[in-house]
Design brief:
Layout (H helix, E strand, L loop, with lengths): L1 H9 L3 E2 L5 E7 L3 E2 L12 E2 L2 E8 L4 E4 L5 E8 L2 E6 L5 E6 L10 E4 L4 E6 L5 E8 L13 H7 L4 H6 L4
Antiparallel strand pairs: 1-2, 2-5, 3-4, 5-12, 6-11, 7-10, 7-12, 8-9, 8-11
The site of guanine has 8 residues, from β2, β5 and β12.
Organism: Flagellimonas algicola
Pfam families: Cupin_5
Protein name: Cupin domain-containing protein
Amino acid sequence: MKQIELLIEKFELVPHPEGGYFKETYRSEGEVSPESLPKEYQGSRNYATSIYFLLTSDTYSAFHKIKQDEIWHFYSGSPLMLYVISEEGELSEHCIGNDFEKGQIPQFVVPGNHWFAAKTINPDDYSFVGCTVSPGFDFKDFVLPERKQLLEKFPEHATIIKSFTRL
Ligand code: GUN
């Protein structure tokens, strides 16, 4: 699709390990010191960061988790479905998009330490969104689990886990 190539080129998007493409658009200069962060963070973090994230219908964003809440913002393209599993094993689905009459929402917060995955709903399409976190993103806080590991934790969600894991 021409629009996908255009977005990748225009916004200098690169492949993300979870699937899709991204580009960091903001990283605050200020930092939070390790003493001011919860114990599970190692080292300091920027106050906040933001990315563009592009997902296409030929792939998906695999289940992963980070420590902090992540705010998703819808920009353009197909609505996107977010699948979220809490540590207690509660699964929820959230449709991010701009057809508000159909119940889609333009912004959604994935709570920290929850496993989440995403897919573009329409075939042959893309979803262009933004993701903002505070404290700022660091790959040290990013966990991309193996399928086996998630299946052991949440056997009741085997179908969705198998659909959204590659490792
Ligand atoms: N920077 C690199 N990857 C990510 C991500 O998955 N989320 C956010 N918010 N920032 C990132």
